[in-house]
């Protein structure tokens, strides 16, 4: 198992405001799989993603990536883990406004010794003709493609996506999902995606459903539907 999570618990606050958000989550994702985390609002999806991404710290449990335990690592080791292994994509693209598309991506290119080839990535993501534009000159879909390129340039082994299509209309959402599918095929990137969109579950290898801090259902798709054929996005 490439990503293995065992009995993770996570709470916030103390005394009167204490809330246990993750109540013992155990699951895993194989290398090269696309996986979706579903669940109602407040069920703990983003908390789980943030704990796996070492943006938040669990109370107890184990998170192993490629055989390496990350719970209990020192801050320096955690930042190395984030830099070397992970890519993050969020609903709001978090681009640097006064850098061009190409420069936004370049900033992340230097985080690794083995980046992907910049020009190839610009072509793959349909950004070649937009590379000298600033984020404010791009559509939402183009901005998200730039954010994806920025996360991918360092060739992360695990891509964590929190509502990557949350701010996009259905046509642009489909375009982004087709792109993620292509990246998964082309680079073998393992992906873990939080989404409210119920259609996306049909295109991925694995679905994890969370209810009130626990896994209520998980399964692998026998017959995946290509992103291009998804409806009701
Ligand atoms: N830093 C924090 N401090 C206190 N409570 C928090 C914190 N982060 C999350 N929570 C609480 O934890 C619960 C789960 O939040 P989380 O963001 O993981 O849910 P979610 O399933 O991703 O929800 P949504 O779909 O609405 O984004 C919520 O009740 C939220 O208020």
Automatic annotation (TrEMBL):
PROSITE patterns: ABC_TRANSPORTER_2
Record bears the keyword ATP-binding: yes
ABC transporter domain sequence ranges: 3-233
Molecular function (Gene Ontology), one example: ATP binding
Keywords: ATP-binding, Nucleotide-binding, Transport
Keyword Transport: yes
Homology family: Belongs to the ABC transporter superfamily.
UniProt-listed Gene3D superfamilies: P-loop containing nucleotide triphosphate hydrolases (3.40.50.300)
One protein family per Pfam: ABC_tran
InterPro entries (alphabetical): AAA+_ATPase (IPR003593), ABC_transporter-like_ATP-bd (IPR003439), MacB-like_ATP-bd (IPR017911), P-loop_NTPase (IPR027417)
Superkingdom assignment: Bacteria
CDD domains tied to this protein: ABC_MJ0796_LolCDE_FtsE
The protein, known as: ABC transporter ATP-binding protein
Organism of origin: Jutongia hominis
